[in-house]
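hey so i finally got around to running the thing on that chain from the lab meeting. sorry it took forever, my laptop kept dying and i had to restart like 3 times. anyway pasting the input first so we r on the same page abt which one it is
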Amino acid sequence: MIVNECSEREKNCDLPLLANGYCVVGASSIDRAFDSLVLLGNGVTIKGQTVTPYVLKSSELYPLVYAGDAVVPGTPGNVSGQCLPNSLDAKKVRGKIVVCLRGSGLRVAKGLEVKRAGGAAIILGNAVANGNEIPVDAHVLPGTAVSSDDAIAILKYINAARRPSSARTVLGVTPAPVMAAFSSRGPNRVEPNILKPDITAPGLNILAAWSESSSPTKLEDDHRSVKYNLYSGTSMSCPHVSAVAALLKSLHPDWSSSAIRSAMMTTAAVVNTRGAPLTDAAGQAAGPLELGSGHVRPNHASDPGLVYDASYEDYLLFACSSIGVQMDPSFPCPETSPSPSDLNYPSIAISDLNGSVTVRRTVTNVGPGATRYRVTVTEPTGVSVSISPGVLSFKRVGQKKSFSVTLKARGTPGKVYVAGSYTWSDGAHVVRSPIVVSVA
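ok and heres what got predicted. didnt touch it at all, straight out
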């Protein structure tokens, strides 16, 4: 079974991550944008995004006002610029384009407040924490959303602005994918010796079917009906990975859920369309605690070369060692259980490393019958990694080979998570596993 990595705005985040077959999915962007230009009176053009069907009919210049300068008396200063319900003064807003900032309240509700106060359009500016990640919305009036840097630029110019243009779909946007700011990060709070999330998939501004019984904004005063809508969240990235899992099961009906998860994780991408490392919404490099093994690649997952399989009994042993619970009445926990890190998982996570630790992994050959894999290692900062043996030779499909991974601390400051990876390759297949370590 595959579950989504809950974002902060979602309420169902208490998920049973220890159950057999669960895969945790993070969210990222795709290489598609819905451009809408904001033309300022000084000739500066700012690129926003929107899917609202409404546009300003006139080409004349419209006055531009910052919501924080147009609030009714008594509005708290810390939310004065966020266009919360009944916060705008109609006398100061009517006929103007209103700049609202993200923070408190729903994005689409901010547009509803601008419309209530008689505003002509809304420019929704990202908070600094959201960076360049722009979720698009079907606003109830003309409007567009802009990045935090562009919002700051607009706030420096509050005299006049041309209307936001109608939206157009742009493909091949780079860099892509980018990790979504709302996607939850590791380390795994349930079991820090298992890396979560497992993998990342598209979850920002995803076009999907929409119930016509619900308006695109789901606001009470929005009575529009649409067949499709754009939505963001790990609830959108989860179906992508679920569909890939279903396709893999149809291609390989004898594969277990663990093998399918392994195929997706070990073939995931860690670079974007520019060939540079994947980043977050702020432009900073994203590591395994943000994106898991990487961004899912369905075609590569169909032919992974090697998989890390795990049996029902393996997960029962894992539950015994991790949470000390006997999950199956017919399977009593042994007196000595293996370490949680020894679960045959496609990634390695070591919490509070003190000195050195050795974990074991077993891979199953699902590629060519006769092949030879060599390992390469990218060590986490301050941690040495040795793998034995360094070469795995297979004679047939389905053959299993085991190896050990020894990690040794070399003075990394305590409680700081560092990341690396190890990769098996036979020249045709690349089987990559992330390593995440915190040193005691």
